[in-house]
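cron nightly-structures :: item 1 of 1
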Amino acid sequence: MGRALDFVASFEESGPATPMFFILSPGVDPLKDVENHGRKLGYTFNNRNFHNVSLGQGQEVVAEAALDLAAKKGHWVILQNIHLVAKWLGTLEKKLEELSDESHPDFRVFISAEPAPSPEGHIIPQGILENSIKITNEPPTGMHANLHKALDNFT
């Protein structure tokens, strides 16, 4: 089963109250899968129903606005690198909880974060982790895996 298929299977389980949480590993861009699947379903930047916010440097306000709009209109939102905004994560947790109730059925949230360097270093609120579908994309190791990964790009 290829990565794209894994993503689609996981996506089927997601919903307005169930974000997809990508745990980042070096050399892997899980958001490509999100963009590709979004494109198939008509969610793109050009259609203005696909919002991608890279967190840090005051982007929290942008992220909150995107979430509010998306929840109303049934858009998709990617929140990248949420581990960079530790202080905002409590707010994000509350917001996702609020929006899980009366959101548009097509509303989806995709979150990415780097794994904590140590168990004590975990900053992602329990509520976000418990409600999300967690996806780890380990980078392929070795020739065989690299070949598979390259072949995954073809149908």
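cron nightly-structures :: done
The two ends are 12 Å apart (CA to CA).
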